[in-house]
Structure formats: structure tokens, C-alpha cells
Task: structure prediction
Amino acid sequence: MSDRESMDYDVVVVGAGPAGLAAAIRLKQLAAEKGREITVCVLEKGGEVGAHILSGAVIDPKGLDELIPDWKDKAAPVGVPVTDNQHWVLTAKGKYAIPHILMPPFLNNKGTYTCSLGNLTRWLGSQAEELGVEIFPGFAAAEILFHDDGSVKGVATGDMGVARDGSFKPDHQRGMELHARYTFFAEGARGHLTKRLTEIFDLRKDSGPQVYGLGIKELWDVPEGVHKPGRVIHSQGWPLEDAWGGGFLYHQENGQVALGFVTALDYQNPYLSPYEEFQRWKTHPAIAAEIAGGKRVSYGARAINEGGWQSVPKLAFPGGALVGCAAGFVNVPRIKGSHTAIKSGMLAAEAAFDAIAADRRSDTLDAYEPAVRSSWIAKELKLVRNAEPAVARWGGTWGTLYAGIDMWLGQIGISLPWTFKHHADHERIRRKDQVKPITYPKPDGKLSFDRLSSVFISNTNHVEDQPVHLTLKDAEIPISVNLALYDSPEQRYCPAGVYEIVEEAGSPRLQINAQNCVHCKTCDIKDPTQNINWVVPEGGGGPNYPNM
Result:
């Protein structure tokens, strides 16, 4: 639009996560090596770099080793080495540990670290800025810009100071256009611009749908006698019955324990609440013992890619590319994706640098996708490609058994000739008359808590007088379809209490408490008719995660 100012760069990156920052760093590294000037800009919708980063996290430093080989000398905050790795199967009455000898070797977490991925991302941001990358936190990329030939021209940031009714407030400011030879989309799982690009360029023509889990996490301060730095626990089994997923519990530095629960979003019972399953999981004696005497200090939630190799879409298109979790490189059995995200960012940067050196612009980076598909990203994801769909198909017991056999065979060089397919998560939900309601215990205020007190410690904040960023394609569907057929599952799958059914003039109405939104994207994924469309709110809004 003519009244928007614009800035030109060689590469614009949307999202200051591990993948986006790795791409920016690698571009500047190559420029320094080749004696060439290259301009790079990174947009971040969070109020600061790392504000919206949420992960367990256990970090495989493989990607970091390649990006910044001297990261130890530069004091990268990778936390503490993993020294005790446990995998538990929980039952209602107890637990049993899976012996390490039964687990494929690549699941042993040898050489990994447990840390705050948010803090590591902040450090990556500082490394990028030292190299001359321009980073703009608090500016949300709201719109894709196109050339006349349909290629991506760049992005535009959203306007600031727009009221809920669409009028301009006194502090209104127009968004900025950022034009680039190439634009990298590193929005993370279920990015709203990535979703649009996927439709425009038919990026899933040759791949299956992406599927997701909802990861919900808390950070606890625990007493010295309880804290065991480097201890890592993963669990499966109880309390889930109508779904699959599992918990994680990591003893990190500074007397803190990061713990959380991931529920696969292909569950069928609309009465299931991922949030309540997490709260119930903490009450298991084995889990409660790990945080005994502790205090909860932070909370957050985020959707996680779980589709694996068969869900990786086409990665490059005219004028742009998908990197990191925007494409979906999470290794689900390993519960890791930051190392593959970093590597994908590096490969995209290398393809873009060569194209820019050849004075190309806005065409397809045809070297990027072959580079990914011949890299260790592909090797790692192909090895585990059948694990998640096996568990989704056959359940926790038989699915895990099959997955273990499949991965062991792959470990010794025997790749089975088939690849299981996925079904989109929203297609799996059943009507309320086909299932039994689930009753959850009330929070005790010690181990389990209500959603609103949880949102409070996520430091979530949005300007209240702005357009609602959780948009509805059809305002009638929440009542005529979701309430009538499914008893409004959005009331339960949202981990932040955004959606409520309220009575107004004797009739039910969906109330959207957008100010509570932690940007997890679950509603965009799980809504039965795909009627909810998540778009970015005003820049700087959302959670502000410390040490998460």
C-alpha cells in the first residue's frame, strides 16, 4: 500500500527462533568468508527474542556444533549435561522403568544438555547481532507481499494502534513493508503465514498432512535435597486413556525442574482436556516426588510438530523458503527438534547466499530442498518415520512395541519398505453422543492448578482494545456445530481459557478471551470444522517466557 514505508534487504527472516537465527548467522558468516556485503533482517512477534520460545528442553548440540563450533568458549547457555536418563511407564498404582538395553541407542541422550531453549535463543540473537543482523522484536509479520508474477516479495508488519472495531486510535502507526530477494519463514509450528503459503503454492501436494501434539510446561523451583541436576525422565501411560502422549521432567541448573506433558492432538473424545491431563499427571507419586516441596514459577504451552518425514512439505517456492518447525523437522521419539531446526536454517542460508552471489532474486532456491533431503536431517527423520503413526494407529502398548522394533531395525541398517500415513488431527474427533464425558479432579493448589492462575505466570499480555486475533470464518458454527455436536471442545483443548460458552439473552454464545492467548495454535489445529483461524495480534503481545 502506498502509505506504508518500506525497507529493502537481501534476506528477511520471519521468526527469531533457532532456525531463523541460525539462517541469519550463517548468511553473515558466509558474507564474511567471501568478502561480500549482505543485508539480513529478522522479525520477531514476541516482545523480545526468546519471549515466545517454549520447549523442554533436552538439546542435541549437533546443529550448534556446525553453526558456532566454539560455542563453549562463547558461553552458550546450554545448561547441564544429561547424566541420568530414565523412561518410565506409569500406571494408576505405580511405575516401571524400560531397561536401557531395550531402547535404540540414539534415544539414550548421551552428549546432550538440558536447558532453557528460550535463553539459548536469546544468546543466538546476540550472536546474530554481533555479526550485523538487524533484529526487530515486537514486530509481527502480518501479511505476505507478492510481486506481479506471484513470487514472494517480502512481508509487512501489522499496524499498531488499531481498535477492536477497526478504527484507528490516537497512537495508530502503519505497518512497515520489508522487501527481500528471499524471505525465510521460521514461524514455528502452524505459523499463520506458512499456512497461507502452503495453500498458495500447494506445498503439501506430495506430502501428508502435518499432525501435532500440545505441549504444556511448568517450571518449578525445588529444594536442594530434591534437585538432581542432569536427571531426565520421560513417561508414557497413565493418566491418558482416550489418547496417547507422555510426560517429561528435567532437572536443570539453578535448582529448577522443567516438567510438562504432551498430548497428541489426534485424540477422539471431545471431553478430553490436555491441560487437565497434565495437572493429573503431576499427582502421580513418582512425579510428585521429583518436585516435592517445590514452588511453581512459570507456565506455558505450544503446539509441536509430530508428523515426521512424511509430513515435510515442499520447502522452497518463488521468493522464499520454510525453515525449522515451519516445515516440521521434529524427531518425535527423541523429543528433539532444535538441532534439526538449526541445520535447516543453515542449509537455506547457504542456498540463498549462492543465489544472491549469482545476482538472482525472487526465484525458487532449488538447491535448498535437495540439500535437506541429502543431509543428516533426512537420515535421522527417515529412521523414525513410522514411530508416531504406529502409536497413533495401535495405541501406547502395541504401537510402542512396533515402533521399537522398526527403529531397532533401522539402527542396524534394515529399513522397512513401508511408510505409514497420517490423518489430520481435526478429522479424528468424535461426536459427543459417541463418547463418555471425562470428569477431572479439582485443582489442589499445591500440585495441580486452574488455567487462569497458570496463564498469570506465563506473563501473557495483549493490548485489550485491538481486533480479536482468533478469527472465525463463520460466526454461527461455534453454536450450530461445535456446541451441538461436540459440546464445544474449544473450551477444553485450549490451555489458556480463551474460549467460553456463555448465556446471553437466554441463548448460548461463544466468548473469546483473546487476551489470555499463549499463542499455542491448538485452536487453529483441532477445531473440528477448521473454522478458527489464528492470526497475529499486535506486535509484542502474547506470553513473555523467562527461562522456558
In short: The two ends are 38 Å apart (CA to CA). DSSP finds 14 helices and 24 strands in the chain. Residues 139 and 539 are 5 Å apart (CA to CA).
